[in-house]
Sequence to fold (506 residues):
Amino acid sequence: MFTTHQQSHMTTKLWGGRFTENAAAWVDAFGASITFDQEMAAEDIEGSIAHATMLGRQGIISETDAAQIVAGLKALQQELAAGELGFDVQHEDIHMNIEALLTAKIGPVAGKLHTARSRNDQVATDFHLWVKHRLPQVMAAITELQQTLLTLASTHAGTIMSGYTHLQHAQPITYGHYLLAYVEMFQRDYERFEFNQKHTDILPLGAAALAGTTFPIDREFVAAELGFADIYHNSLDAVSDRDFAVEFLANASLLMMHLSRMAEELILWSTYEFNYIELSDDFSTGSSIMPQKKNADFAELVRGKTGRTYGALMSLLTTMKALPLAYNKDMQEDKAQVFDVMDTVIAATKIFTGMLSGLTVHEERMLASTQDDFSNATELADYLATKGVPFREAHAIVGQLVLLGIQTATPLQAMPLVTLQAAAPEIEDDIYQVLQSETAVNRRTSLGGTAVANVKKEIARHQKLSLIHISEPTRRTPISYAVFCLKKKKKYEKTEISQLKDTTQE
Fold:
């Protein structure tokens, strides 16, 4: 029994029973996370509703108390949606703020909500839910970008341009083929986020502080209520795992790298020197002093935000690298970067979709870039190889002709036949057709090559994949408890059968 004197010196914190003094306000502010983890308010309430429902269902608290708590939480849910909830740094984090708001609404019964859980498994659950709800948005944005690229590729399946290595003219390709390279990259990004969702779709709640709980909780029921596909099977791992967040930042870094590479090319190709493309006015800016300027600012911003994303990944990796099990306060630093990067990648991907949708392609300029250079040199070397000239010898012959062409400012296709035959008698007048950019492109029919027919096949293949992505739900809804348990039962039965087969084979 506490004396009045003892009670007067206790802190006002919800966790402050063994403390006798409050920290200074600035100390509280340093330790608080409410400035950023209020981003998870909806998820905190969502998780608490499922937890309270389970507590009542299991008889851990009375059904009357559970119903009162759930009703109070749903009222807070509505106020949050209406932008009417305010949070106080005094209550440290989103969990304590929600509990304080609930207490103000329904009285001391709100204190029963925290039965059989800790902030450790609560925050992990909130964080899982937050990422789980938004990964489909990232994947949907990627799909939309891929569709835009496919539309553009379809229009320009036969648009000839120069392919580059070392940023030097290499061989003719089509613009459609170039665009499909990014479609492939973004497909890998999509699949990485899809796998990320698997590691995110796991319920930590029920692990309590680190060792589980003595209360007869039903974790399967809570998982089903919240739409989780699985449950953590180790309580230490449940509260200390942030792999899903690191994985998200790593995947986001790869996606931003791909966007940044394309941004670099959009910036270069929209310059006066290249003039391959022109960005729409909607995604360009002007100069405050130079009237003629049209700057690719949004592409530059995406390129710049890539560094920001990399920084977030390195920050969380560094935070986690030496943390002992289980929960540590360091892990409070896991969320702000993820929140920021989630917004960044979704916005950057949508910006790209917009930029590409309004893109003007200067087809004639692209084609011309392959006609006044020596990007058809490989065609001549391959031609000689088909005539029986060893490729290395053919390479040397063509190299000499290229040197002559540079000295005389004459492309290979403009050289007289007599000049070509002086270098290699095997050359006949059909060489001029071979040296055409269109011919060079369409002869590359190997799987994955730049031939227009190949490009059209790949566009059709990716369009089918895109339709599959679109048909997938963007957010999983809660499943029934019975369905969840049935799925788990089937999973275990499958595992047992597999193990039995292995034993029999031995």
